[in-house]
């Protein structure tokens, strides 16, 4: 399902109303600047964000930020010239133009004009910050605190917070194409610390996406978020030290796909493969995963955190098949890396803000469902672990080597789920793990909508999804003596 709302616009802009430069003049500067380049654009952005945090029985902080500016990019060959400013004016744009032309003065290219037109939009044009009053947000945070503390003296600490933003984007290209997108985004997180018999454990849960807060929190559904955070902490209070060694691992559906995102997804981004620093750079068309493993990166899911109508170069997003039945089919591409690799953009060009250059990035990275039930996987394991959720970890995004910490996991003994375990880490590398997947579940689940991906100092919102999967052989680091 998608909302129909044309965003492909000719000759109009919302960013020059209070400026000394008209949209047509800005378009002329863009065209003149980029006439001898391979690519580039003027990227304009208006960004509003808020954060409200309750901690230790009181509102600890409340912030609101508003920022507006532009990023002007010119590309020839592999060279990227970039200038940005929060001053949208005739003088500022002309200075940026001069800087770009001076950087590329000895280089010539041929501008690539193709930007497909579409009027598919995957979220409403709403400002979630203004959609709910400040006082109602404060009331809900206090209700969260009171609700969790009513569960007894076991509750040691409660933290809850709203994170919201609204980003308006316009992209002016060399042939006077003007493309526009308005992007809402919210997150709501709850963290609870429980203490029993001198032992403390934390449970964290949150939800979010490109909707309003009330789409996630209405009709008392915020209590479900509180209950889940409480459940995770309570499970870990009863946990035992994790075993260590090489064993079978069952990953649960949904959020555990963060392992796929980190250990595999980054290695399938175009820049790493063009530069031949990815473990996958020379494997196109080859078997890189077990048969039955299909991984896609989809920017078109309705109202999901990683979805975009257009990427930050103006290219419509798509559902990109990366690995199909174990065969490597595509990389995620922005325009620059696609051109240099002789292919097309997949609508994966993203930037954190107007202050940052475009990079090929993930959107919603997912392993698709197979045919097996989770029960079949569990029953096939004599000794192993069942990993339900992950916290922090370390990843080498070019080799895919990783160490992930499990925040909720259980022992599997003789085909049955046993005690919760504490301190389990999963160790391996993405290319090897792909080939160790023996069963793919039929229970694919999206993550709750809280992911942010970091790359080259930039953070962008992303999503993940997967069914339960059985990994035949994986190194587990534990604390059991």
Describe this structure in words.
This protein is an alpha+beta fold. The protein has helices at 23-34, 90-103, 128-131, 134-149, 214-217, 222-237, 258-265, 270-274, 335-340, 374-379, 430-436, and strands spanning 3-4, 8-10, 39-55, 58-76, 79-85, 120-121, 155-172, 177-196, 199-209, 240-241, 245-251, 295-298, 319-324, 327-328, 349-350, 359-360, 364-367, 383-395, 401-413, 416-422, 425-429, 437-440, 445-446, 451-455, 458-466, 469-477. It has eleven helices and 26 strands. The strands form five sheets. Strands 2, 3, 4, 5, 7, 8 and 9 form a seven-stranded antiparallel β-sheet that branches. Strands 12, 13, 14, 17, 23, 24 and 25 form a seven-stranded mixed β-sheet that branches. It has a five-stranded mixed barrel with strand order 11-18-19-21-26. The longest helix is centred in the N-terminal third of the chain and has 16 residues, at 134-149. The radius of gyration is 24 Å and the shape is globular. The model is unreliable at 1-11 (pLDDT under 50).
Please provide a brief summary of the model.
By secondary structure, this protein is an alpha+beta fold. The protein contains 11 helices and 26 strands.
Total strands: 26
The amount of beta strand, in percent, is 35-45%
Q: How many DSSP H or I helices?
A: 11
- The average pLDDT is 93
Mind describing the biggest β-sheet?
7 strands, antiparallel
* Gap from first CA to last CA: 52 Å
- Described by the principal axes of the CA atoms, the overall outline is globular
- Uncertain spans, ≥5 residues at pLDDT below 50? 1-11
Protein structure class: alpha+beta
Instruction: Specify the helix fraction band.
Output: 10-25%
Radius of gyration: 24 Å
């Amino acid at each position: 399902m998608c909302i129909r709302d044309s965003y492909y616009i000719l000759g109009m802009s919302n960013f020059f109303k209070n400026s000394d430069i008209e949209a047509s003049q800005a378009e002329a500067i863009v065209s003149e600047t980029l006439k001898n380049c391979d690519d580039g654009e003027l990227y304009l952005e208006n960004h509003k964000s808020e954060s409200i945090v309750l901690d230790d029985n009181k509102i600890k902080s409340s912030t609101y930020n508003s920022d507006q500016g532009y990023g002007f990019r010119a590309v020839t060959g592999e060279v990227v010239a970039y200038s940005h400013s929060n001053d949208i004016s005739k003088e500022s744009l002309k200075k940026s133009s001069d800087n770009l032309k001076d950087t590329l003065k000895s280089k010539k290219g041929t501008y690539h004009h193709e930007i497909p037109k579409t009027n598919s939009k995957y979220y409403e044009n709403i400002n979630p910050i203004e959609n709910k009053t400040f006082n109602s947000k404060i009331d809900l945070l206090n209700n969260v605190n009171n609700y969790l503390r009513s569960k007894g003296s076991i509750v040691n600490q409660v933290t809850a917070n709203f994170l919201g933003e609204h980003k308006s984007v316009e992209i002016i290209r060399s042939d006077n194409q003007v493309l526009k997108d308005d992007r809402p985004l919210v997150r709501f997180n709850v963290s609870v610390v429980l203490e029993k018999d001198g032992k403390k454990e934390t449970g964290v849960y949150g939800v979010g996406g490109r909707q309003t807060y009330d789409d996630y929190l209405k009709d008392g559904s915020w209590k479900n978020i509180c209950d889940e955070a409480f459940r995770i902490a309570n499970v870990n209070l009863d946990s035992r030290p994790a075993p260590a060694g090489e064993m079978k691992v069952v990953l649960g559906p949904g959020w555990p796909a963060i392992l796929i995102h980190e250990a595999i997804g980054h290695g399938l981004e175009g820049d790493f493969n063009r530069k031949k620093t990815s473990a996958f750079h020379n494997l196109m068309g080859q078997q890189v995963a077990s048969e039955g493993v299909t991984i896609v990166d989809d920017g078109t899911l309705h109202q999901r955190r990683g979805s975009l109508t257009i990427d930050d170069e103006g290219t419509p997003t798509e559902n990109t098949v990366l690995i199909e039945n174990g065969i490597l089919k595509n990389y995620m591409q922005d325009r620059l890396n696609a051109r240099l690799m002789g292919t097309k953009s997949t609508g994966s060009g993203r930037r954190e803000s107007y202050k940052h250059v475009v990079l090929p990035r993930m959107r919603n990275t997912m392993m698709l469902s197979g045919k097996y039930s989770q029960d079949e996987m569990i029953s096939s394991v004599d000794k192993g672990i069942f990993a339900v959720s992950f916290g922090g970890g370390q990843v080498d995004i070019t080799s895919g080597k990783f160490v992930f910490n499990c925040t909720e996991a259980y022992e599997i003994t003789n085909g049955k789920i046993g005690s919760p375990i504490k301190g389990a880490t999963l160790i391996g590398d993405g290319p090897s793990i792909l080939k160790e997947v023996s069963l793919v579940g039929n229970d694919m689940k999206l993550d709750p909508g809280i992911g942010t991906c970091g790359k080259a100092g930039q953070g962008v919102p992303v999503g993940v999804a997967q069914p339960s999967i059985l990994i035949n052989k994986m190194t587990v680091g534990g604390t059991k003596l």
